[in-house]
Design a protein that fits this description.
The protein is α/β, with parallel strands linked by helices. It is 30% helix and 16% strand. Helix 9 (208-212) links the parallel strand 10 (198-202) and strand 11. The structure holds ligand MGD (2 copies), iron/sulfur cluster and molybdenum atom. The site of one ligand MGD has 38 residues, from helix 7 and helix 14.
Length: 743
């Protein structure tokens, strides 16, 4: 007997609604939910493989605890006892900063990962926090923090309505979009063209997305900030700057004009390999379009000038009046956002409130660069204690961060390590305790993060499609217990964590005049919360206090968990709408177009005008049927073009004597790898490309399929020293490498 159940897909940022076929407790099929208010039936090959991902026999079923050097299955009680026993002495002896926390990408794809890590970190009181953000989008957070005073205020392109999209360093036909949650991104690009709009793509590779474009610019990697600065220059020079409705909300336009004066199209052309006429045309097209949006992603963030490029993306939207207008780039308003406060000056955004111990790298958004995790563990010199214990939640930095070999050794030297991970993989194999979450079919789902980045406001929640198997523990409970175990409350009821957060949130809300619950009794409000579990009550709380909420009875038609449960395919909350000045939290209460830290980084960009190292540079790429480091173990998603090959242009291949399919040696500052060459004009001359997340050949892992075609770890070519200085983000694209034919 089979049945169907709804589940929001957690396998990328598009958050498609799926209809699962369930037989017993096994997911045997997945199709797009045609009634989903947001995704309307769209599904990609990864979503279609949900059952295989969910049912992978290599997923751990029980906790593992290290005994006599070996990881063995144990009970949950034994596992949390081991965590408390292993962690507490380190904290008591060396202090909270000696415990590192690493949060990986899948935390943004689980409810547990959205709700509990902040409590864990606050409870520990550690400043040794490292996340996937610093190998990804931290430059965008820093740019938003500086421009708008809020690191999480990230405008997204209004894909459904724009007339002109300039897409930089993003390949949504493979990635399905990022910092822009849009089910069927490919379809939206086709619709843009069908309604007469234009698409320009800047990418050193001729990607599937670039093939859709009206204009593809194969830029030299790492130089987008120069090109975008030159576009800003042209807008000023040709008097195309038109802030429109933004005028009263923006300061610093004249200072910006001065700041970009050196970046003429003629001055940047040699560094970017884009001719001056094309740069002028790009600027004019942007200004001329009725509405337009500039959007940048991985290729604009994980580069030497990541923060400057991310800032310039918004600058161009602002100078052309496209920020905060339909068809441009707008700030979404999610159902679980905080109650919007009245517009006015805020506290602003601070960088560098503390620094890393060894390299003195400034924190950004409370985080230290993931690139320096290894040195924070293995280097004794520096102020304070090294990291001696580690909590890794949904993180595989041995493959995802620079110099995995060094990190591999560093992890082995830790006094104690715990991994919350479904797999025994390159990172979790070092743990003393591995706590495996259940497969996604057994977890509830709501997208706290991605709804704040969605191209349409909407809200959806799916309860577990399959009941928790005997012996399994919900990931929310795992993280709550872990928090208790490391904060000296081992064994307390997990409800204590939920109650604490709910109590604190309500206690604050009743004191704030702008909330709908101002002046009410937190106890009375708490009693009104519904939900079958702590996390559901937590969601109910956020919905009811949020911008569309029922305000605990103040707006009876408003949102609550109960109301959401009546709409299993979600509730549409309408298109993105202009919101300024409300989201601004800068000290001036306006958009600060040329913030000081940005101005201070411009001389570095000026130097890049004349720096042009010889030799090949490396960029990454993603494949539609992949997901970072953890999906190479699913047979239906591997093979074909989803391979760890070194793409190289025919001209470079010929010059270096590299034959298609033959092994080539690639050498970078951090090491050397050997991969099969794929000779293709899909990359421009001077550039080679290797995907990340491969290198599944380390011993002590349980990834039986991935190990049959392990690939190589591209991040071994890095030594961890290349960072975007403002954000601490790793430079993963545009790195110098040497390529030699073998044999
Ligand atoms: N060279 C290069 N390196 C890169 C990138 C690049 O473009 N080039 N991209 C970077 C980017 S953007 C990112 S986000 C990072 C991603 O790198 P990571 O942050 O390491 O994330 P993933 O590899 O997606 O998964 C991490 C771990 O989460 C586990 N996991 C999967 N599902 C769950 C779950 O439901 N719960 C828990 N607790 N764990 C789960 C997986 O088994 C895996 O071990 O890689 C970065 N590294
Ligand atoms: N199928 C699949 N989907 C994914 C993921 C996955 O691993 N597989 N990962 C998810 C994650 S964690 C993220 S963050 C998103 C990322 O989403 P995207 O940013 O869309 O991901 P990529 O496909 O890596 O696209 C980056 C593009 O930047 C180009 N590029 C490299 N260097 C430069 C440069 O200097 N300048 C310019 N202009 N372009 C450059 C690369 O050639 C590449 O085509 O994808 C998410 N979705
Ligand atoms: S596009 Fe992303 S969210 Fe949609 S089905 Fe594919 S993997 Fe899942
Ligand atoms: Mo990412």
């Amino acid at each position: 007997m089979s049945r169907t159940a709804l589940r929001i897909c957690p396998l990328c940022e598009a958050t498609c609604g799926l209809t699962l076929t369930v037989e017993g407790t096994r997911v045997t099929g997945a199709r797009g939910d045609r009634d989903d208010v947001f995704s309307r039936g769209f599904i990609c090959p990864k979503g279609a493989a949900f059952g295989a991902v969910d049912g992978d026999p290599d997923r751990l079923r029980a906790p593992l605890v290290r005994k006599d050097g070996e990881l063995r299955e144990a009970t949950w009680e034994e596992a949390f006892d081991a965590v408390a026993t292993g962690m507490r002495p380190v904290i008591e002896r060396y202090g909270p900063n000696s415990v590192g926390v690493v949060l990986g990408n899948p935390n943004v794809h689980t409810m547990a990962g959205a709700l509990y890590p902040p409590v864990l970190i606050a409870g520990l009181g550690t400043r040794s926090l490292f996340t996937a953000s610093t190998v990804d989008q931290m430059p965008k957070h820093v740019s938003s923090g500086l421009l708008y005073g809020d690191a999480n205020a990230i405008p997204v392109p209004d894909l459904d309505h724009t007339d002109h999209l300039l897409l930089i360093g993003a390949n949504p036909l493979e990635s399905n979009g990022s910092l822009c949650t849009a089910p069927d991104f490919p379809g939206k690009l086709k619709a843009l063209k069908a309604r007469g709009g234009t698409l320009s793509v800047i990418d050193p590779r001729h990607t599937r997305t670039a093939r859709l474009a009206d204009r593809h610019i194969a830029i030299r990697p790492g130089t987008d900030a120069l090109l975008l600065a030159a576009m800003a220059y042209v807008l000023f020079e040709e008097e195309l700057v038109e802030l429109g409705a933004l005028t009263p909300h923006v300061q610093g336009t004249e200072e910006l004009r001065d700041a970009v004066r050196d970046f003429t199209p003629e001055a940047v052309t040699g560094a970017c390999d884009v001719d001056a006429a094309t740069i002028r045309a790009l600027a004019r097209e942007l200004a001329a379009a009725p509405t337009a949006a500039v959007y940048g992603r991985i290729g604009s963030c994980t580069v030497q000038h990541g923060t400057l490029a991310s800032w310039l993306v918004d600058v161009l939207n602002i100078l052309t009046g496209n920020l905060d207008r339909p068809g441009g780039a707008l700030f979404p308003q999610a159902a679980t956002d905080r109650t919007p406060r009245p517009a006015g000056p805020g506290r602003g955004f601070a960088l560098g409130r503390w620094r890393s111990r060894v390299g003195q790298h400034p924190e950004a958004k409370g985080e230290l660069p993931l690139s320096v995790l290894a040195e924070e563990i293995d280097t004794a010199t520096g102020a304070g204690e090294p990291v001696r214990a580690l909590i890794a939640v949904a993180a595989n930095p041995v493959l995802s961060a620079p110099d995995g070999d060094r990190l591999d050794k560093a992890l082995d030297s830790l006094d104690f390590m715990v991994s919350v991970d479904p797999y025994l993989n390159e990172t979790s194999r070092h743990a003393h305790v591995v706590l495996p979450p259940p497969p996604p079919s057994q977890s509830p789902h709501h997208d706290f993060a991605f709804n704040t980045l969605a191209v349409r406001n909407q809200v959806r929640y799916t309860r577990p499609a399959v009941p928790l198997e005997p012996g399994r523990m919900a990931e929310t409970e795992i993280l709550a217990r872990l928090t208790l175990a490391v904060t000296g409350m081992h064994g307390a009821e997990t409800a204590a964590v939920d109650d604490l957060v709910i109590g604190q949130t309500l206690g604050k809300a009743v004191k704030e005049p702008h909330t709908p619950v101002h002046g009410r009794d937190p106890k009375e409000l708490t009693a009104q919360l519904t939900g079958e579990s702590g996390p559901e009550r937590w969601l109910d709380l956020m919905l009811r206090l949020g911008p569309y909420g029922d305000g605990f009875g103040v707006r009876p038609d408003g949102l609550s968990l109960a109301k959401l449960l009546e709409h299993p395919h979600g509730i549409d909350l309408g298109p993105l709408r202009p919101r300024l000045p409300q989201p601004l939290k800068t000290r001036s209460g306006t958009v600060e177009l040329l913030p000081q830290p940005i101005a201070d980084d411009l001389p570095r960009l000026r130097r890049a005008l004349t720096e042009r190292p010889d030799g090949l540079v490396l960029v990454g790429r993603r494949h539609l049927r992949s997901n970072n480091s953890w999906m190479h173990n699913i047979p239906v998603l591997t093979g074909g073009s989803n391979r760890c090959t070194l793409q190289i242009h025919p001209e470079d291949a010929e010059r270096l004597g590299v034959r298609d399919g033959a092994a080539v040696r690639v050498k970078g500052a951090g090491g050397e790898v050997t991969a099969a060459a794929e000779v293709t004009d899909g990359v421009r001359p001077g550039v080679v490309s290797l995907p990340h997340g491969w290198g599944h050949d380390r011993p002590g892992t349980r990834l039986s399929h991935a190990a049959t075609d392990p690939g190589v770890n591209v991040n071994q070519l890095l030594d961890g020293s290349l960072l975007d200085p403002l954000s601490g983000n790793a430079v993963l694209n545009g790195i110098p490498v040497e390529v030699t034919a073998t044999g």
